[in-house]
């Protein structure tokens, strides 16, 4: 068994933040620091180092007010692999039902001696609000349709591993751009690292105003497909929509699902990503989701490395 701890040295000088709230406010240098640290955790894991106890004695709490499979489990594992104590808060069985506010709930949890809270909430800005009211670090694990920074980072880490530099890469985000926090975090991160970003989907879900910040927009996957290097297939966020933005799921799949026929018209080395959960047959057909171009499960593996990096940078840098 390998017991030696990976030597990450001290937290890089370019890293001064206590919270990770979004990729919009990070510089290209800060994003690169997280990606490089994440790559080191990834490589250590691949070399057989299962535990890297850099946060022994620290406590991190998963404060999830919305459902999650990947993000919650990945943060729990990241905390444990770093040697810290992990606590999972369940909104359904908490005292929120007795009228306690989110801020009071978080302050009470912090009073038990917590170093970081990882928060997911349907209301945009909840992690920002908590960061103003708590002394510990706050990590945004998804705030409504606003941002999901660790998802954006793990998507970008996967692209970097497969393609090297992001500079000049054409990345298309397909589907429900209007309601997708993954889309926003990808847009900010990719743009800062020099990728060309296209947002593509039904006109009811893709605003032409993205062009104002240099993002290309399109309503036709078939038009853009031949020049795309990476496709990130977003789930239709029915739970955030008040009215259905297209006539039927069948029509959506006809126009936007990545399938065998479209693969034949794409670049030979097209990389297919999806943040998950995927709806097979809606945004992607099973043969593509499970096929050789797909890195969907690699993204999940990379999520663990990214979350270890984020926690180490935020909590490990504290005196
Ligand atoms: N991608 C993602 O955030 O998945 P979960 O909702 O399962 O965490």
Describe this protein's structure:
By secondary structure, the protein is α/β, with parallel strands linked by helices. Helix content is 37%, strand content 14%. A five-stranded parallel β-sheet has the order 7-6-5-8-9. Strands 2-1-3-4 form a four-stranded parallel β-sheet, with helices on both faces. The longest helix is centred in the last third of the chain and has 20 residues. It is globular and about 55 Å long. The two termini are 31 Å apart. The model has no long low-confidence stretch (mean pLDDT 94). It binds phosphoric acid mono(formamide)ester. The site of phosphoric acid mono(formamide)ester has 10 residues, from helix 2. The site of phosphoric acid mono(formamide)ester (CP) has 10 residues, from helix 2.
Q: Report the sheet with the most strands, covering strand number, pairing sense and barrel closure.
A: 5 strands, parallel
**How many H/I helical runs?**
11
Radius of gyration using CA atoms only: 20 Å
Distance between the termini: 31 Å
The residue ranges in which pLDDT falls below 50 over 5 or more consecutive positions are: none
Structural class: alpha/beta
General form: globular
- Helix and strand run: HEHEHEHEHEHEEHEHHEHH
**Overall pLDDT metric:** 94
Bound molecules: phosphoric acid mono(formamide)ester
Note the beta-strand portion. Answer: 5-15%
Spatially, the strands of the biggest sheet line up as 7-6-5-8-9
Q: Count all strands and give the number.
A: 9
Fraction of residues in helices? 25-40%
User: Assembly state here?
Assistant: single chain
